[in-house]
Design goal:
about 260 residues, alpha/beta, 2-enoyl-CoA Hydratase, Chain A, domain 1, three-stranded parallel sheet, 10 helices
């Protein structure tokens, strides 16, 4: 069974739900609507309300350029107050948490650009595969001038380590497929996008044959370990960035396709 939605392609076959981010001309930049649809499916899968019997989810990107190049910057043009920043981070946390706590395994099938919100989605997934052309990073110090919520910093550090995350954010440099594989962030690298998607399907098929209670308990146990220490409050950090002149300049510069003029205020 399959059906198309304008920004998200949804297909279901053999217990595998495939969600394809479908804005290739925008490098699959995510709108709030796309985030909400992903959250809906992840909250549904494996529950008593899941009439289809979803046993695994694959998230991938359409086109040749990107898995996802972050949140659509146009979504930020309406930001006017500090509450807008807090609301955005709370909304994104709800989506990312729904992936992380999904009762069936979620596979992120990565190619091209995997940056910003796209990287956070991949980080929340339980398994990750990549094609050889993948470029992974968090270039917000070069593009927007905002900051990551501390919950997402923790997710990145858990997978990459603090030193690599610091380098990734401070330099805005992108990791290659080989670097992502060496760090353990991805489990396998395939030569082409098509080969990577085929491998993702094969892996998902394997997962559908596994004991569901073992999968659920193991995923939940790993998540509990990662969250055993509570995150400190980051409201002052969100306020410092999202209400700054630099953030407004970053959004404007991105949309106007020019370099931002950072002023540190």
């Amino acid at each position: 069974m399959g059906f198309q939605q304008s920004e998200l392609l949804v297909a279901f076959s053999g217990g595998i739900l495939t969600l394809t981010l479908n804005r290739p001309e925008q490098r699959n930049a995510l709108t709030f609507g796309m985030y909400q649809k992903i959250m809906k499916f992840c909250q549904l899968a494996g529950t008593e309300f899941d009439d289809q019997g979803i046993k695994a989810i694959v998230i991938c990107g359409a086109g040749d350029k990107a898995f996802a190049a972050g949140t659509d910057i146009g979504q930020f043009t309406a930001f006017e107050t500090l509450q807008d920043g807090h609301d955005y981070e709370a909304q994104i946390e709800g989506v990312i948490s729904s992936i992380e706590t999904c009762r069936v395994p979620v596979i992120a099938a990565l190619h091209g650009a995997v940056t910003g919100g796209g990287l956070v989605i991949a980080t929340a997934a339980h398994l990750r595969l990549a094609s050889a052309d993948v470029k992974i990073g968090m270039p917000i110090a070069r593009t927007l001038g905002n900051c990551l919520a501390i919950t997402n910093l923790r997710r990145l550090v858990a997978l990459f380590g603090e030193a690599r995350v610091a380098h990734m954010i401070l330099t805005a440099e992108l990791l290659s497929a080989d670097q992502a594989l060496a760090s353990g962030f991805v489990h396998d690298v395939l030569e082409t996008r098509d080969a990577m998607l085929a491998r993702a399907t094969t892996l998902a098929q394997r997962l559908t044959t596994m004991a569901p209670l073992t999968i659920q308990a193991s995923l939940d146990g790993l998540r509990r370990l990662r969250h055993a220490t509570a995150c400190p409050d980051d409201s002052d950090l969100i306020a410092a960035c999202y209400t700054s002149e630099d953030f407004a300049e970053g959004v404007a510069a991105f949309l106007e396709k020019r370099k931002p003029n950072w002023r540190g205020r």
